[in-house]
Amino acid sequence: MYADRMSNKKYSVNNTRGGARKSWPMRNNKHTWKRGGMDSDGDTEMSDGNGANSRYRRGGPRFNPGYARNKNRHHRSGWFKVIVHHADKFLKEDLFTMLDKSTNEHLDPQSVDVERNKLIFFLKNPRTKEIIEKQNGKMTIKDHVISMFAVPSAGPGSRMNKEELKAKICAALAKRYQNGCLSLKSFDLDEDLRQLPCRVKIFEIGEVLGALVKEKCADLLVELDLSENKLNSTKVLAPIIKECKVLKKLNLDGNSINQINQLHSLKLSAPQLTHLSLINNPIKNVMETVSYVNEIRKFFPKLISLVCVFQV
Fold first, then answer.
1. What is residue 61's DSSP assignment?
2. Are 233 and 254 in contact (CB under 8 A)?
């Protein structure tokens, strides 16, 4: 009797004692039932849900042991990487003293460093995650509430010093520069950089890239390709682009820019742009075509080419 509803795929029929009942929305996970079929006379096929051929068996994702191994690969090391926000508002010594007092033990932080106003250090303590989660948002130093978190890590040996990282990135840039054009397309997938023990994302190394561009090719760079780097804002590009005084062409295809104000930092650092490409960015979906073009032209008055097709 529910056959017509079954064809709509919005309802599923569950067989329980006392008769069939409907449930919706129908989803294939551990909390709902898979849809049944039809028997020979065209009615909905019923089953008790326990047999081997039951069409009302529990659904859900299969366990993937390979995924579990990869997800927990750092746990065997016993190390945790701790990241504390707003490092300029407190002294690291005060933080370590308060952590020791709260745990009644000496935590012995290793490889302490400050990156982009974040205090980063490593702890080898099985209770690290529990300690950090317990103290997050509850510790106060000089009227500043401490915000921090801990993630499993391969340990302090997995970190590179800034000079080594800069040398590796410089070598990768040299291969990608040619005749005034620098291609940083899918930069995090560069074969040389993927071998490094740390992540190399555009939004994480903007300052390093900016320093290298200024040193090596700022006066020569006319075209810059930053496509397919998962960028949702151009603010992280400011350290790079502001050094390129003769930059004319910028390619931001295949990123995640979805608001017009996310281009504001480009207006400040590269008002001389004449060619801008925003293909396959969701920004066009939130604006009418005319207003979209007009707003971008206000940012870049010298623009003569704007490519902004959104590909589904």
1. P
2. no
Q: Which of 163, 133, 161 is nearest to 147 (CA)?
A: 133
Residues 6+ apart with CB under 8 A from 268: 238, 242
- β partners of residue 21: 14
Distances (CA, A) of 64 to 27, 69, 153: 21, 9, 22
Q: Residue 222: which of 151, 170, 270, 188 has the closest Cα?
A: 270
- Of 189, 268, 185, 183, nearest to 224 (Cα)? 183
Helix 162-176 and helix 206-216, axial crossing angle in degrees, nearest 10: 60
Contact yes or no for 296/303 (Cβ under 8 A)? yes
Token reading at 296 = 């971008």
Per-residue pLDDT 10s for the chain (312 aa) are 444 444 444 444 444 444 544 444 444 444 444 444 444 444 444 444 444 444 444 444 554 554 444 444 445 678 888 999 998 899 999 999 998 888 888 888 988 888 878 899 999 888 888 889 899 999 999 889 999 999 888 777 666 677 888 888 999 999 999 999 999 999 988 888 877 766 677 877 888 888 899 898 888 999 999 999 988 888 888 888 888 889 999 999 999 888 888 888 888 888 899 999 988 888 766 556 677 788 888 889 999 988 876 443
Other CB atoms within 10 A of residue 150 CB: 20
| CA 107 and chain centroid, separation | 30
Q: Six-digit token pair at 236?
A: 């992280």
